[in-house]
Amino acid sequence: MGTSHKPERGVRKLRYYLIRHGETTWNAREIFQGKQDAPLSEKGLMQAQLTSNIATKIGKATVWCSSLLRARQTAKPLAERGGYEILIDDGLMEIDHGEWECLHVEEVKRLYPELFDLWLRQPDKVLMPGGESLKDVQGRAVKVLDRIRQRGEVQAIIVTHDAVIKCLLCHWLELPLSGFWRFRLANCSVSIVEEEDGRATVPLLGDICHLESGWRWSKQRSL
């Protein structure tokens, strides 16, 4: 659960804006992309532009971004709009799906039926063949939070991926990683987490009101 990296008491308030990258063509086709460098689709590029408008409400901040192209493409218009510095951090990369990457969901079901079923029921028990576990992802993502705190940030915008955000939310809310699927986060959704006096609170979760489509339930898996 990463409980050894909880916010320290006495540290001033720190607000995180967590943004999932925009839609990629692989998202739309339900292909596992993981650490593959899939670009944003036309819809994803539009989502990124719409998301950049939230810079007017955030104010001074630094953008921490996954090194994968889809995250960088999402962060760029936001950084330009807000005049933010972008810091690239590999600790924010999507979960490594290993042998599942580049495969359609139906192919994974056929080739790895038992493991795929376990992924949907008990994701914390799964080590992706040739890839990572959720514990691996959470461990490296929590270290990024440490690096943010060490810089004395007051506000940090984290542009990253579905699995990374869910693992961080489990960490902050002290939930076991078995609760991974309890969160559903659409592309370019915005969540806010605040740390103060050793506590983490979540005043906003999965907001997509800044997108023209408004609230729309998404059934997308963590791909």
Automatic annotation (TrEMBL):
The keyword Isomerase applies. It holds the Pfam family His_Phos_1. InterPro entries: His_Pase_superF_clade-1, His_PPase_superfam, PG/BPGM_mutase_AS, PGM_Phosphatase. The keyword Isomerase applies. Keywords: Glycolysis, Isomerase. SUPFAM superfamilies: Phosphoglycerate mutase-like (SSF53254). PANTHER family: BROAD-SPECIFICITY PHOSPHATASE YOR283W-RELATED, HISTIDINE PHOSPHATASE FAMILY PROTEIN-RELATED. This is Probable phosphoglycerate mutase.
